Amino acid sequence: MKKVGLTLAALALLCGTAAAQDVNEPTPQQTQTMSTANTLDKALIANERKMNEAVAKGDKATFQSLVSPNAWSADGGGFMKVSDFIAVFDQVKVSNWSMSDEKVSWLDGNNAIVAYKWTGAGSFQGQPIPGTVYASTVWTKKGDKWVATYHQESEAKK
């Protein structure tokens, strides 16, 4: 009986030790992947800021360098091909803007969504633009370059 008691005690001690180990610690490979994702997240958010800055400054060349020529967008005015937007690019007037609450959601290794809250003031084709929108852009890796392929804006409730 003593042997059974000692065996059970040893078994309980071993089980407790195993349970106390943190099995959720990331492996070195997972750590490297998370680090890469964080770096890419920051780069995509920076690209989103560059794209917004290009629109605000009327910098068509920079805007086009960040956006796929086949891209689309959607907002309260409907759908628009980027080629149609480029044709009226000079009719966008932004006096101030900011991005906040940025998030990146990965669809796969070559596609991610950057979502954020945009706040600003300005006009498009003489009409005021909404002061606060929730925006998202799909970024796609084409070759070695990330480009915006779809952009969507939803006006925030007032």
Number of strands: 7
What average pLDDT do the residues reach?
85
CATH structural architecture: Roll
Tally of helical segments: 4
CATH topology: Nuclear Transport Factor 2, Chain: A
Shape: globular
Explain this structure.
The chain is an alpha+beta fold. It has a single domain, classed as Nuclear Transport Factor 2, Chain: A (Roll), CATH 3.10.450. The protein has four helices and seven strands. Strands 1, 2, 3, 4, 5, 6 and 7 form a seven-stranded mixed sheet that branches. Strand 6 and strand 7 form a beta hairpin. Helix 2 packs antiparallel against helix 3 (60-66). The radius of gyration is 25 Å and the shape is globular. Residues 4-24 have low confidence and may be disordered.
How is the secondary structure organized here?
Layout: H1 2-20, H2 28-57, H3 60-66, E1 67-75, E2 78-81, H4 82-87, E3 92-108, E4 111-124, E5 127-128, E6 132-142, E7 145-155
Parallel strand pairs: 1-7
Antiparallel strand pairs: 1-2, 3-4, 4-5, 4-6, 6-7
Helix pairs in contact: 2-3
Could you write a compact summary of the structure shown?
With 158 residues, the protein is of the alpha+beta class. The protein has 4 helices and 7 strands.
Question: Which short descriptors sum up this protein?
Answer:
158 residues, alpha+beta, single chain, 4 helices, Nuclear Transport Factor 2, Chain: A, 39% helix
